[in-house]
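Try this one yourself first.
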């Protein structure tokens, strides 16, 4: 029971916290102070002109143009594919091993990792549910390095575990997390095999670990809040590019911060000036201490570019491709067969055993392949799609 205490706290917090936050916001309009800016004051944001584009039902920054492509979908791994007397249950995340093109899939229903060939054929299973060495309590995110090693953020066991693509456990080390955190932790592995995570509970926006679990550096002090609950608004997606700069995409702040290798801020940019649809955001005044919201499904760094996965419509995902200067180069539309967030009634899914663990509010992730082809694991439908131009 103690191993699930954290998740019961999360459920209780998710019920109480919105009520607490409403009262707090009504009584205390102190705004989050970050970089000397008052995020409650709308005048703190740059005033830009916007141009409505009826072709894409979107708003563009004045003078901002970029191509938009709609991809076609086909099944890569079907729900009907029986391998080793198993099926995919809830495939949540997929990554491609650069050297072999093998596909690594995190299944949060079966609580394990699967390896498939470039053609979608089953190769092996890695790990199993549990708390022992090499076992997974509740994996929430993973990344791979260029050699194919797999780095899993296991929130259930509060640790990062590193496996070879053949399933060997290299090492694991613990991460101190806030019991009040309502977010899904993310991580990014650099070419130098450094592990970058966003863990505001440590007091920093970005923490860099070695493969052995040693803290190499901490970047960007998180403002001091009055309650651990407020740490959720300092969560985001951390990255490091080829020039040695660190990026953190902070959803609740609608802000991207860029640090150099010594930890000095070299760029700050409002997401309103990056993503067109955010130009219609009219709730800036709601961004106060303790506020927290998901804006995007996922953000990745591939091919020296950022890929922001957004929700376009109920049956569409949009991917914005940004360069290192945070300028949009292209937009990709992924048409889905079913509405986002709708449970698919399927006999195979209903017959599979539930893991018995409390569920996070998982979001939709993708993997970018060669020529910008895209793999999309649908945990609603228990299968994986591939999107092509």
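Now uncover the answer:
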């Amino acid at each position: 029971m103690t191993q699930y205490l954290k998740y019961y706290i999360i459920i209780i917090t998710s019920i109480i916290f919105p009520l607490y936050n409403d009262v707090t916001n009504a009584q205390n309009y102190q705004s989050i102070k970050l970089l000397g800016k008052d995020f409650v004051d709308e005048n703190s944001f740059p005033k830009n002109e916007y141009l409505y584009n009826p072709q894409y039902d979107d708003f563009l920054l004045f003078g901002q143009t970029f191509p938009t492509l709609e991809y076609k979908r086909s099944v890569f791994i079907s729900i009907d594919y029986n391998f080793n007397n198993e099926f995919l249950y809830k495939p949540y995340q997929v990554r491609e091993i650069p050297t072999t093109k093998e596909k690594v899939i995190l299944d949060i229903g079966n609580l394990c990792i699967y390896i498939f060939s470039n053609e979608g054929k089953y190769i092996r299973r890695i790990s199993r549910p549990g708390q022992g060495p090499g076992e997974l309590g509740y994996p929430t995110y993973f990344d791979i390095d260029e050699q194919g090693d797999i780095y899993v953020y296991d929130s259930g066991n509060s640790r990062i575990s590193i496996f070879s693509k053949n399933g060997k456990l290299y090492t694991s080390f613990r991460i101190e997390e806030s019991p009040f955190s309502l977010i899904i932790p993310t991580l990014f592995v650099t070419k130098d095999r450094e592990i970058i995570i966003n863990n505001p509970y440590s007091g920093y926006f970005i923490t860099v670990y070695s493969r052995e679990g040693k803290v190499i550096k901490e970047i960007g002090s998180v403002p001091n809040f009055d309650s651990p609950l407020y740490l959720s608004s300092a969560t985001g997606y951390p990255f490091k590019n080829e020039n040695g700069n660190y990026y953190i995409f902070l959803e609740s702040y609608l802000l991207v911060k860029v640090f150099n290798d010594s930890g000095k801020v070299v760029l700050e940019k409002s997401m309103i000036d990056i993503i067109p649809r955010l130009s219609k955001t009219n709730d800036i005044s709601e961004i106060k201490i303790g506020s927290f919201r998901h804006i995007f499904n996922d953000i990745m760094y591939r091919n020296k570019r950022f890929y922001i996965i957004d929700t376009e419509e109920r049956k569409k995902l949009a991917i914005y491709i940004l360069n290192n200067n945070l300028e949009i180069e292209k937009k990709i539309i992924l048409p889905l067969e079913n509405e986002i967030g709708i449970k698919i009634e399927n006999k195979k899914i209903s017959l599979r055993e539930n893991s018995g663990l409390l569920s996070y509010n998982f979001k939709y992730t993708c993997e970018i392949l060669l020529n910008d082809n895209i793999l999309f694991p649908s945990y609603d439908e228990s299968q994986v799609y591939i999107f092509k131009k």
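Discussion: The radius of gyration is 21 Å. Helices lie at 5-27, 347-351.
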